[in-house]
Design goal:
54% helix; Arc Repressor Mutant, subunit A; 2 strands; 9 helices; two-stranded antiparallel ribbon; mainly alpha
Length: 200
């Protein structure tokens, strides 16, 4: 009798116990809408009250409190992953199905695209591309120096040294006591005649 009682407790409380109807619905909601809804929303959809939904969601996803629910969540996730996984055979078969449906519907462009994708998966097409990186980070020091020399040679040298005019025989210099720049010579004449209102 004690063994039967112990066995019943294991089924009701152990990791292998059966899920209740709401627990099963919670598992379907949380896995089926993975990333789209929160645990609280899944608990509400499973039939738990809005007031207790947050706590129930926490408990149902806690392996220490409900290991059987957590195990079922994991099992159901793996089942869906294997059902919707992309593998080679399934991909090629699905592309053929899409090609046939598109062709039957008169969507020849879509049919050609589906067939081309099947060919790519089969390796019938070889994509050739050349990628060039113009980044200085991908160049060696020698290449950088050659490129800089090429750029230097493409420009004509410019002399930016100002020419200083020495004071004339009368010793006239500017107010600071240095010679005038060539560009300053004759500037007063270029300004035109002075107005009668200008002060000297």
């Amino acid at each position: 009798m004690a063994e039967e009682k112990e066995e019943k407790n294991v089924k009701k409380r152990g990791p292998n116990r059966a899920l209740t109807r709401r627990q099963e619905k919670f598992v379907r909601e949380i896995v089926g809408n993975d990333g789209l809804i929160t645990g609280t929303e899944a608990a509400i959809r499973a039939g738990f009250t809005a007031r207790s939904a947050y706590q129930r969601a926490y408990e149902l996803q806690n392996p220490k409190i409900n290991p059987h629910v957590v195990a079922e969540i994991q099992r159901y996730r793996e089942e869906l992953d294997s059902l919707y996984a992309v593998d080679y055979k399934r991909h090629v078969r699905d592309m053929k199905t899409l090609r046939d449906a598109a062709s039957a519907a008169g969507s020849y462009s879509a049919a050609v695209q589906a067939e081309k994708n099947r060919g790519l998966a089969e390796g019938l097409y070889v994509s050739k591309s050349e990628v060039r990186h113009g980044s200085i980070d991908s160049m060696s020091r020698e290449d950088v120096e050659k490129e800089l020399e090429r750029i230097r040679e493409s420009f004509e040298p410019i002399d930016i040294t100002p020419e200083i005019i020495e004071p004339d025989a009368e010793g006239s210099v500017d107010a600071a006591g240095v010679g005038l720049l060539e560009t300053d010579v004759g500037r007063a004449d270029e300004d035109g005649p002075k107005d009668s209102n200008d002060e000297d």
